[in-house]
Amino acid sequence: MEKLIITAALTGAEVTRELQPNLALTPEEIAEDAYQCYLAGASIVHIHARDEEGNPTQSYEVYKEIKEKIEAKCNVIVQPSTGGATWHTADERLQPVELSPEMATLSTGTVNFGSDVFMNTEEYIEKFALRMKELGVKPEIEVFERGMITNAVKLLKKGLVEAPLHFDFVLGVPGACPGEIEDLMYFKQSIPVGSTWTVAGIGRYELPLATVAILMGGHVRVGFEDNIYYTKGVLAESNAQLVERISRLAKELGREVATPDEARVILSLKK
Length: 271
Hints:
The chain is of the alpha/beta class and 271 residues long.
């Protein structure tokens, strides 16, 4: 079984300091958080930027500052979000891709986010995929519903993405697919042969889905974007604490954790 890639989703677009006092907001804080997660075993850091007021932003300049500060500390893979917040326009969401990161997220369908709607029309999806291909950015295909896998395969047939594909199954979002183990099994068996995959369990789904993914040969995402608690009712002290638990669990289950350079090979990154 190949080594385990751990992704740390540091901030997200919805979590606030009121909900999680340890949330990193400034570029300096996010870079330090990324470094601590790297030390704990993360190979990838998934980034949502915040502005000076702590609100979600897709600003090219803010992402550039975050990326440079992280890369000055360690060689972790920096993966910006093209999802942003539900109110960002498509052009705003695409800004971080212009930095030519090694990876960026690509959501392949529209989905409910609680009372909001995360809009991804076919036009958006193809525009994002094409720009990533032009810049040599590996898309992490974010899947919230089964149809999004079908949409990703359509992109592959159109030549807008290249095999092997890498998927992130985001399970347990209110309004989207639940995060039961059978949901993960269904998604995993639905992707093209040769693809790699990560699971991001939301809230209470994070730890059980991570455990199953380790045993199934998949990869794992944890972090405050997905879950702010360490145990029920007990806030996590840091993103690194959540990463360290997965690293420790993997070792207990007999699976080694990948370094960033090993993750680059597993994911067929070009840079």
